[in-house]
Amino acid sequence: MIKKIIPLFFLFTLLINAGIAQQGFLRGTVTDARTGETLIGVTLFAEGTTIGTTTDFDGKYNLPVDPGTYNIRVSYISYQTQNFTEVLINPGEVNILNIKMKSVTTELQQVVISAKARHNNEAALLIMQKKSASMLDGISAHQISRLGDDNAASALQRVTGVSVQNDKYIYVRGLGDRYTKITMNRADIPALDPEKNTVQMDIFPSNIIENIVVHKTFTPDLPGESTGGHVDIVTMDFPEKFTLQVSASLGYNPQANRNDEFLTYEGGNTDWLGLDDGTRDVPARAKKALDANGNTLYPTTFNAAESYDISNSFNTVMEPETMRSGLDQSYKFSVGNQTPLFSKTLGYNFALGYSKGFEFHDDGEYGLYQEGIIEDPWKIFDTVSYGKEKVNVSGLANLNMKLNNNNKIGFRYFRNQNGTKTALSRSGHFYYEDRDDYDRSLGFMERILNSYQIHGKHVFPAANDLVADWILSYIDMDQNEPDLRFFENLVGDNTWEIKTNDQPARFYRKMNEANLNARLDLELPATIMGSNSKIKFGGIYSYKNRDLEETKFELNVQNSLYDKHMTIDRFLDQYIIYDVPPNTLEEYPAGRLGWYYLADQNQDKNNSYEAAQSVFAGYAMIDWPVVDRLRFIAGLRLEYTDLRVNNLVGTADTKYKSGGYRKTDPLPSLNLIYNVNDEMNFRLAGSQTIARPSFREIGTNYYDYKLGIFVVGNQDLKRSRITNVDLRYEWFFNREEKIAITGFYKHFTDPIEQQLSPETQNFEIKYINVDKARLYGFEFEFRKDLDFINFLRSFHLAGNFTYIKSAVKIPPKELRKIRLADPGRSDTRPMLLQAPYVINASLGYEHDNLGLESTLAFNVSGEKLFIITKGSTPYIYEQPYPSLNFNISKSITKNFIIELSAGNILDSEYQAVHHYPGSDRNYITYSTGRSYKVGLKYMVH
User: Fold this and answer.
1) Nearest one of 39, 453, 367, 248 to 939, comparing CA atoms
2) Considering the entire predicted model, what is its pTM?
3) For 658-680, what is each residue's pLDDT tens digit?
4) Among 80, 545, 761, 833, which is least packed by CB within 10 angstroms?
């Protein structure tokens, strides 16, 4: 597929540039040298000609001229006029000239400049931070490339105060899931995991990203759920001149790649595209039987021949196999430009990406312990092997039409399809039974996201230069988890046995979510008490609808003892019906069946649901420079939420669950910014935000096969309210250099937390609103070039440190149960998955003349509360996982760059443990291995 599409992009690029090859272009952006704000209406004129232009509402300009050398005159009222001399324009080429205008202080002057301005993404991001109304951090595309990060999740862990869970979930200041809002180009993205309230960030490849911005404080133009942070992924915009990039890389991890013992199983023919081809679907015969018999599949419903036919329609693959794994591979392509079209300017950007990777370990350990403060093993798997094969395919199309200097419209389409195939094999000892235990699991998950965005920006000079910025977004998301298989058995001296309460099972889940998002932002320049101010107001409508269906098939136990040497596939071939010759099935009643598949979709429908959420929001805010250096930003956002969840069982069924709420929340915000000078800011922010419950937490009761826990829905669950206070000092003392120190405090009312049932024997959790919680901490960030030391002048150093402390009251019933065995246990605990500290550091080297860039990057976060255990059993904490990575790139010709990288240089192991008195005991531990990658990149720019 990719091989066919890439030549079409090349052809398209040649055609649209063929007619303009003789003309040259001067393009760039004009900004205020002090504030970094873009300037509208700046005049640029090529002296000795009649050719000139003005900047648009983004401060951008486009000056088409014949080839030659020109003096460019730049003028704007109240700013110093600048002359750029000997600007060379070549035929068919674009020369970039970015300009910083200095305001007039005492008298008008003319400034002559010979050196050309230089565009730099890191510098642009720092300017954005400096002038932003809210406190924000972020990472640019150039930084992402320099650090060698392949997707948004790995890139975000470099940002101050951000940690990443399971390589995909983002936690800002220790808060994730419901407390962190993620958008793409300011439009909502649906969650791709029914157990989470946030999107999985590993689906966004690095080659579609312009930058990622993390807003740490709330302003009324941001979503009301921006408590921990608002993460906005900004996709690539069209460049100022033609760019083309093609890259390929191969990766090798000695533990996972080219390994003959890699654990896997036979899948479908389209697994390499991240999609199941139907191989793992519920067999047609079983599906027909379900539909024909009240959605219930019992053996008494069918005669022996029918039951055999239904059960035998499932494949017999329930055990992993080994194979030789391949190398990790990644391929990326992007092209962009802007060109005249129908006397307008059309900008375009297209990107494609494909990657395939392997993960494997065979040295894992998994331990379960019986309830109590003293370590008492229940089931210990001391040999754990796990193989994962992951495919990601993505594409981006971005078109923008500049109608004139006051109007532009655009369209973006982004698609991602992601498939993950897993195989797990565990062996150990079941202490309760005093026998060895053997466990297998086979899985496949595909995620498909299609995003469509139409957007525009308009300036109305007749309305005092009112700026209207709007976007209409529609996202359709599918997650399919077909035929997740579990098979566990005990092993004796000469036999193996399957326990009746641990029957082999096959699990199917499909989820679809559609998300419609519309927003309009209006910004009106105003003069308030003699100060040039801005009034911003707007409205947002967001609607999402989710359908989730689950189906489960279990093998019913009749005879559970089998010869020790019998394989699973042979067992499934022979014992679907035992002791019955296939050609005489009709002679035997259903009661003579041995093993057969059983399904009860009445129960499955209790786990399945349909849900919808509508959010209407309106806001107004003012950005007012009260005095020369004091900036006042304040406003109010009103959000109305209508959230409903319903089981798929009928309303007359006693198991029917539904829930939701309707609520209007006023969300005020105040930001004060004091400019000590042009380089330093003091910021103070206060705001009110909210956190909504997820669909699944409200309206369903379900059993999580992966974790082995029951989750009980709570139809009375309320949204949480959070009061936020932040104080920051920031010093932008040079280009790409800064120091920032931030303190923050958050007070939670009705926070949503897990409650463990003290009455039930099984592990059962319910989500409840506890009374209060709090979180506080501080952040420190710096970036500094080392050019003040002569032999280190090409090096730059960056780092950040975040300290976080939180406390949540343990529910009274749970606390009483804990203190029966552990009287000294505290009545509070940290928030779930909240890291007490996050550390990032990087040392970079950049030498333009050599075409050489390299970065050594380090990341670690402190131990996190991973699982809240039952009773007095010590909680499970995820241990720090220090990561050290190295990336280097070298230009070998004008257009070719070779890249080398090494990951997990410290060979860190993943570990989650119980803190028993005097010793730790492993819940999960495994190694990940070092990884190495080599890549080749071809660039035209």
Assistant:
1) 248
2) 0.86
3) 888 899 999 999 999 999 988 89
4) 761
SS3 string of 572-619?
A: HHHCCCCCCCHHHHHHCCHHHCCCEEEEEHHHHHHHCEEEEEEEEEEE
Please give the Cα distance from 756 to 638 (Å, whole number).
35
Q: Specify the 3-state DSSP secondary structure of 260.
A: coil
Residue 935, burial from CB neighbour count under 10 angstroms (0-12, 13-18, 19+): buried
* pLDDT of res. 587: 45
Question: SS3 sequence, 704-718?
Answer: ECCCCEEEECCCCCC
Residue from 786, 780, 804 nearest 844 by CA = 786
Q: How confident is the model at residue 656 (pLDDT cuts 50, 70, 90)?
A: confident
Q: Is the pLDDT of residue 902 over 80?
A: yes
CA–CA separation, 679 and 730 (whole Å) = 8
Task: Specify whether the CB–CB gap between 707 and 507 falls below 8 A.
Answer: no
* Cβ contact 90:115 at 8 Å: no
Instruction: Report the 3 state secondary structure along 85-122.
Output: EEEEECCCCEEECCEEECECCCCCCEEEECCCCCCCHH
Q: Kindly compute the dihedral angle of the four CA atoms of residues 463, 466, 469, 470, in this order, to the nearest 10 degrees.
A: -30
Whether 264 contacts 423, CB under 8 Å: yes
Q: What percent of the chain has pLDDT over 90?
A: 43
The tokens describing 128, both together, are 């954005």
CA-nearest of 436, 386, 95, 431 to 264 is 386
CA 717 – CA 318 distance, rounded (Å):
39
The model's pLDDT over 505-558, given as tens digits with 9 standing for 90+, comes to 899 999 999 999 999 999 999 988 888 889 999 999 999 999 998 888 888 766
For 842-855, b/e burial (b = at least 16 CB within 10 A) is: bbbbeeeeeeebbb
